[in-house]
Amino acid sequence: MKDVENKDEKKKIGKKDYIKTSDEVNEQEEKSKNDNIEISDEENKQEENPSIESKYDLKKSKKRKTLIIIIISLIVVICISIPITLYIINNDNPFVNKSKIELQYTETNDNVPDGVYITDVSEVVENVMPAIVSITSKTLITNGWFGPNYFGQNQYTEGAGSGIIVGKSDTELLIVTNNHVVEGASELTVQFINDVSVDAIVKGTSERKDIAVISIKLTDIDTDTLNTIKIATIGNSDELKVGNGVIAIGNALGYGQSVTTGVVSALDREVTIDDYTNKMIQIDAAINGGNSGGALLNSKGEVVGINSAKYSSNSSSGASIEGMGFAIPISDVNELITQLINGEEVSNGATLGIEGYMTNQGYGISYNVPTGFYIAGITSGSAADKAGLEIGNIITEIDGEKVESVSDIQNVLYDKKSGDEVTLKISYVSGREYAEKEVKVTL
Fold first, then answer.
1. Per-residue pLDDT for 7 more than 70?
2. Does some domain include residue 40?
3. Does residue 283 share a domain with residue 252?
4. Residue 324: which residues within 8 A CB-CB, separation 6 or more?
5. Which of residues 205, 228, 251 is at a domain's end?
6. Annotated catalytic residue: which of 137, 180, 206, 308?
7. Which of 134, 292, 308, 427 is catalytic?
8. Which of 428, 441, 269 lies closest to 350, judged by CA?
9. pLDDT tens-place string over residues 146-198
10. 302 and 278 within one domain
11. Which letter does DSSP use for residue 440 in this model?
């Protein structure tokens, strides 16, 4: 019984111990919780009242973050600035090698603003070019016996000009050009549009009008060339107006046929060449050496003039001259060209039968001598001789035109024929002064 009781007591004790143990555990848990709470409170207190070490760590952390942010910002700025800098350098610095540049192409704009025009004369030029030729002349300058280079060898100088095909007979091709292009030439060569060259001869000339006609035997021209070339269409220069568009074609500088365009700057301009004055068409289309004898065309492609001369700057004048070219009006020389083509004798006008000089060229200016042509010689039996003119007479006017150059007399006489009459105003010595009188001369 005692053992049983002892066992029961042990059981009770064990149970009691177990219960106590649980309570102890609970108390420990409560205590642990309280300890945790206290620890948390202490941590919070530490956060609210950080120590010197915690403050140092916090500042260090903030500096680290700031540094990181600055580094990242710098990297971003550098990444952006490098491409921009390279672009600026490559586009603005002329000393930096650039990449290959490609042309930019855009579609043609059909909406051209008013007032913007591009002159296209290609159709006219294409149609007329087969009627234009290049002329090369050779002129003998020494027979060689006393030449500067070779003993016994002839020396020549070459000149370049242009011409216009104006007709074709049964036996020859006829080309008009300037007299000064062929004057004195011992050899002439004509080159056609297909670059075929053929020898030519002078058929007739007029020094007074600076016109010449040259010819080529048809038998000297091959069939292909004959089928290629054309005869030019002659227009009417009397219908020209200032401001009309014109086209000039010629063998500029001997390089071959070239084209320039412009307008009629003036009409009836008096231009003196080799002491002869003619009325010409002034144009602003470029006229250069070698263009002489070439065609001046209107917008229809008709020949309205023969390019003849240009004014240019020189050291003596000191003037700057551009865009002053001149052409012989075709209507003024149509009859003359026809006469030369047909081999007819061309009259160079009537003559007075006198010789002399202008008084404004020499001593006459210093002695108050009237301006005019001083007669220094008279041909016996001439018109001047029959009219009673004397050596020493000064012609100051002819048919009401003042005589200020030799060409003034020549221009009037050129249009006169044998039997025509001209009126001269003569100054002659009367005592110690000059007197005037009119004399009618039958040519």
1. no
2. no
3. yes
4. 265, 282, 284, 310, 311
5. 228
6. 180
7. 292
8. 441
9. 555 555 566 767 788 889 999 888 899 999 999 888 888 888 899 999 989 99
10. yes
11. E
